[in-house]
Amino acid sequence: MEPEEGEDRTPLLKEPQPHTVPACCSARYNLALLACFGFFLLYALRVNLSVALVDMVEPNTSLAKNVTSNVCPEHSSAINVPRNTTGEKYSWDADTQGWILGSFFYGYIITQIPGGYLASKIGGKLLLGFGIFGTSVFTLLTPLAANLGVGYLIAVRALEGLGEGVTFPAMHSMWSSWAPPLERSKLLSISYAGAQLGTVVSLPLSGLICYYMNWVYVFYIFGALGVLWWFFWMCLVSDTPETHRSISHAEREYILSSLKDQLSTQKSVPWRPMLGSLPLWAIVVAHFSYNWTFYTLLTLLPTYMKEILRFDAQENGFLSALPYFGCWLCIILSGQIADYLREKQNFSTVCVRKCFTLIGMIGPAVFLVAAGFIGCNYALAVAFVTISTTLGGFCTSGYSINHLDIAPSYAGILLGITNSFATIPGMVGPVIAKNLTHNNTVGEWQMVFYIAASINLFGAIFFALFASGEVQDWAVSGYHLHRN
Fold it and tell me: SS3 letters for 266-295?
């Protein structure tokens, strides 16, 4: 009997499931935890420069301040406490600092699709391992590059971006061989939650290192930890369950049997049907839209709080990290809830992915718009940005892992495609917002939030209309969709 139109036909949700192997001490959950530490370090390596840069530049050449609005009274003032001032200072103007901070994304966007393609050919272990290893080495070289000149520093940051660009596609590619379909949300949410945790820890920790030690140690400490992680990764991880040295026979059979009808054996990549697939473009639009709002919150809300509410969020490391802590918690919990709904409550995959994406995109949009109407209430501003970023964590079990639902064999390539588009908001979103807020009026900032929220809303609706939860016909051997 043919399934009804729109019904989720993912084979493994319809057939009797192989006997589940316990998660405790299993090879697949060990992989998730080690990947979590990897992405923790990856994001620590990514955001540490934005903190250290404050100490790297001479005060008189610091970023030019915008005209501060006088709508709200001064909320706080910095407390003068003795601090370490031995770090080298550089006379970089605002434009130069912008190039230094932006150079990462120009390297990052280049290796997304090649990273996914390479992972499908040589495996994700080496690509992810050497991606983080390379990023760590260039991080260790950052103080030397800064001493040699700004051009060297920009080049090193771009090379770090090249290294990080392959990591997410490589991880997706590995999970296509390791994650049983009914455990995808849990396993991927654990591994990718490390990124938010890295932001939570590295923002205040980098500030403390700069304050009490020297800004160079921000790069030396995190860079050295990245190299140390690489040794563990290369020794303990395998590309597939078949090649893992210590996996139990029961777990190997459980993973392989759960994936047997979902993977393709064809050598060539079906580029034409892949790029013509509407479910893929649903993920692209959602990924682009979510990142626009994410980068607006990440880069511009502190500015809004400083220029309009007249409170510098950087004075309190805990408050600046609080939204990302909420997001980390939400990612972990939503992964557990998503797989519970699919496995125990018989919710279809497409239903879970769409619902979680709608919550994770419309929720942040609502609170982003609300942030423009809070007057001078700083506590409410912190609450709104925390709730907004926390709700965004639902997307990790929504569109973010949908690549593995529609084409497990090409998940790395698909993530490379969607992440290429999703990197663009990080490059152009803040520039557009800056051009809209020349006078720092409340009305200008409301327009910035309206634009971000509208893009988020469009992405959520587009995904809800056109996303799929089933393996696409072009993604399995012989272009045949396996049905019950």
Answer: CCCCCHHHHHCCHHHHHHHHHHHHHHHHHH
Distance linking the first and last C-alpha atoms of the chain:
9
Is pTM beyond 0.85? Reply is no
d(CA 453, CA 405): 27
Bridge partner list, 57: 90
Q: What is the pLDDT along the chain (484 residues), one digit of tens a residue?
A: 444 444 444 444 444 455 666 667 789 999 999 999 999 999 999 888 877 887 888 765 444 444 555 667 765 555 555 555 677 888 887 678 778 887 888 899 999 999 999 988 888 999 999 999 999 999 999 999 999 999 999 999 999 999 999 999 999 999 999 999 889 999 999 999 999 899 888 888 888 888 888 889 999 999 999 999 999 999 999 999 999 988 999 999 999 998 887 776 676 888 999 999 999 999 999 999 999 888 777 666 666 766 676 665 455 556 777 888 999 999 999 999 999 998 888 899 999 999 999 999 999 999 888 877 877 777 787 788 889 889 999 999 999 999 999 999 899 999 999 999 999 988 887 778 777 877 777 788 888 889 999 999 999 999 999 999 999 989 886 554 443 2
> Residue 448 corresponds to which amino acid?
V
Whether the CB-CB separation of 407 and 481 falls below 8 Å is answered with no
- Give one DSSP letter per residue of 354-379, joined into a string: HHHHHHHHHHHHHHHHHHTT-TT-HH
- The span from the CA of 241 to the CA of 437, in Å, is 53
Go through the chain and tell me how many residues it has. 484
Query: Which residue has tokens 């020297």?
Result: 214
User: What Å distances lie between residue 426 and 43, 219, 307, 410, 420, CA to CA?
Assistant: 15, 23, 21, 25, 11
Q: Which residues contact 145 (CB under 8 A, 6 or more apart)?
A: 152, 153, 155, 156
